[in-house]
Amino acid sequence: MADICVLGAGLAGSEAAWQLARHGFAVDLIDMKPETLGPAHEQSFFGELVCSNSLRSEKLTTASGLLKLELQHFSSLIMEAALACRLPAGNALAVDREAFPRYITEKLQAEPLINLVQAQVHRLEDLKQGYQIIATGPLTAGGLFESIQDFTGQDNLYFFDAAAPLVEYDSIDLEVAYRGNRYEEDGGDYLNCPLDESQYRAFYEALVEADRAELSGFERSLLFEGCKPVEELARDGYDTLRFGPLKPVGLADPRTGQEAYAVVQLRQDNFAQDLWNMVGFQTRLKFPEQDRVFHLIPGLGQARFARYGVMHRNSFLNSPSLLTDFYRSKTLPQRFFAGQMTGVEGYLESTASGLVAALALAQDLGQETEILKLAGRETILGGLAAYVSQAESKNFQPMKANFSLLRGLEGSEMKYFRKKYKLKGRGRALRRSYYSLRSLEHLGFSDEAIQALVEAHGL
Questions:
Q1: CA 197 to chain centre
Q2: What secondary structure letter does DSSP report for 299?
Q3: Rounded to the nearest 10 degrees, what angle do helices 11-22 and 99-110 cross at?
Q4: Pairing between strand 158-163 and 131-134?
Q5: Do residues 297 and 193 touch, judged by C-beta distance below 8 A?
Q6: Distance CA 343, CA 293 (A)
Q7: 3-state SS track over 15-80
Q8: Which of 46, 188, 190 is nearest to 111 (CA)?
Q9: What's residue 439's pLDDT?
């Protein structure tokens, strides 16, 4: 039997090892945990979430919702864990930050075909010859980072990511904050802190003037737009936050029936409901400044922060010049890369890369998989893989799941789906549903299963 190793037991590596075992292959899953933790790690479990606890929308009219269904089709371990550890979050899928990685770890430990190896690998050359999936994550550093640079010939390929603060529930003023989900009359999954115009102005001015952990000019230019710190968003303009993470639209205060000038949302972060995440508040403010500025938010005047927002480096490869379809190295076909280091951005996108790399590897070794269904851009799984290998390499930037990754729709396709599934929607949401339905049919979902999804999502 071929030697197979997966280096890194984050979301991508855990999923890759699981998929290989599911297809009958023994695999060494190598990780420095539980003995050694990385700079952003707090837990000894595999598959730890180091930023938000949200896996984004489940709606079929969103690319993240479609990606979840595609992953479930392939019996994704990460999706199984997410559904088992979910928390109330409206239309989003949020998970308990501790239960989720514990579930993943226990499943991997119980799988006889997965050999868990605790080791800190410093060079790619230290790995056994054979098939490899390198999934060491965006915080890869030290000798291993240098070894990957030597292999790829790349350097200065990184961006900066940030994590939002966590607030202790019993320190939130519930006389000010109110429960409510955007556009939902009966939803109560989020806590909302309303700001009037004068409160917003005071908060805004304090935020843009606050003392930050400084980066060099070159590093500052590499801040990733998809996870931009809240203070950087504020510096883009006075109303930027009000049209972004603090937008009040659809969040009328049930006590007044009116929308505030701006709203800060908090999302449940664990089963115990004692920790709440400040939605969209990833930051690189210094800790004392976070205390000073965030306490200006109504409802958070006496807030206790269980974790301050932090900033850290995320490394990624210039993948279009380095990888072929399905995350395979151009120069060493037995080596695959997976996770955020490939240029996919997001928890489930990282999971997707590990799943696809594993299916391609299994196919190489003679096990029939559905990998060829992902060769085109009919699915988000295939679209992400195509983007990573085919995007313009000169200005390559990380990418989340989105419908622009998919092949364009033909008029005949839209007519077909509208008639077959008796769709009643219109506009952009209807168009997005066409992409989702096409992907599900392409993967072999039954007509009955798709019709049930159409009805469940109100299409």
A1: 33
A2: T
A3: 30
A4: unpaired
A5: yes
A6: 33
A7: HHHHHHHHCCCCEEEEECCCCCCCCCCCCCCCCCCCCCCEEEECCCCCHHHHHHHHHHHCCCHHHH
A8: 46
A9: 98
Give the SS3 label for residue 367: coil
- Helix ranges restricted to H, 196-247: 197-209, 217-220, 230-235
In the prediction, which pLDDT does 70 show?
98
* Residues in CB range of 67: below 8 A, 6 or more apart: 348, 349, 352, 380, 381, 401
Cα separation, 78 vs 348, in Å, equals 8
Which residues, including other chains, have CB under 8 Å from residue 246's CB and lie 6 or more apart? 195, 200, 262, 263, 264, 280
Which backbone phi and psi does 325 adopt, to 5 degrees?
A: -55, 145
**Residue keyed to tokens 């939605």:** 279
- Which residues in the chain come in under a pLDDT of 50? none
Is the preceding omega at residue 34 within 30 degrees of 0, hence cis?
Answer: yes
CA distances from 124 to 6, 148, 452 (A): 12, 7, 47
Interatomic CA distance for residues 96 and 105, integer angstroms: 14
Amino acid at 345: E
pLDDT at position 54: 93
Q: What does the pLDDT look like over 21-65, one tens digit per residue? A: 999 999 999 998 887 776 666 788 999 998 789 999 999 999 999
Q: How far apart are CA 312 and CA 331, in angstroms?
A: 30
- Which amino acid, 313? R
Supply 36's token pair. Answer: 């050694």
Q: Which two tokens stand for residue 266?
A: 């908090």
Contact 373, 442 (CB under 8 A): yes
Spell 132-151 as b/e; 16+ CB within 10 A means b.
Answer: bbbbbbbbbeeebbebbbeb
Largest Cα–Cα distance of the chain, in whole Å? 68
From CA 403, how far away is CA 383, in angstroms rounded?
A: 9
Are 293 and 285 in contact by the 8 Å Cβ rule? The answer is yes
331 near 124, Cβ under 8 Å? no
pLDDT of residue 392: 85
